[in-house]
Specification:
6-stranded antiparallel β-sheet; mainly beta; single chain
């Protein structure tokens, strides 16, 4: 797994859609805008594994920041996404490192070490029970990455 630089991948924030719509950005690759979008406005980290791209983004909202995790294919088409956090939770992304070639370990909320492991082929997912507390995903029965962590309640 290769950590991508800001010169290779960056975000260009889009105007807010207002209401409860998530903040979004257009993904730029080598300074050129793509048609792909990602939730969030701050690129915390970006990685390439095989023909996959894994992005970690945040909303830049103090006291209620969410971490968005998105996986794209080699043409920057979205494959999978998850959001970590919740109302009134505070988080600050801190990269710990790459593990085993296809996993990233980091800290965000719940005084917890989190891990995202990219799967070589899509795996089965049971909605609402397959992910740790604090992780939200779009409804579906497959996943391209696994999120692991055991968050402790915030005080």
């Amino acid at each position: 797994m290769r950590n991508l630089t800001r010169a290779e991948v960056a975000l260009a924030p889009l105007p807010s859609a207002g209401g409860d719509a998530p903040l979004q950005s257009r993904i730029t690759v080598h300074g050129q805008p793509t048609e792909s979008r990602a939730d969030g406005v701050v690129l915390e980290a970006a990685f390439q594994w095989r023909d996959f791209y894994l992005l970690f983004t945040t909303d830049d909202i103090p006291q209620e920041d969410l971490l968005h995790i998105a996986l794209f294919d080699g043409q920057w088409q979205p494959l999978d996404a998850a959001t970590l956090g919740g109302a009134y939770t505070t988080g600050s992304f801190s990269l710990i490192g790459v593990e085993g070639g296809n996993a990233v370990r980091f800290r965000f909320i719940g005084d917890t070490d989190w891990c995202v492991e990219i799967l070589p082929t899509p795996g089965f997912r049971m909605p609402f029970v397959s992910d740790p507390k604090g992780v939200a995903r779009p409804l579906g029965f497959s996943r391209h990455f696994v999120v692991r962590g055991d968050p402790q309640p915030q005080r």
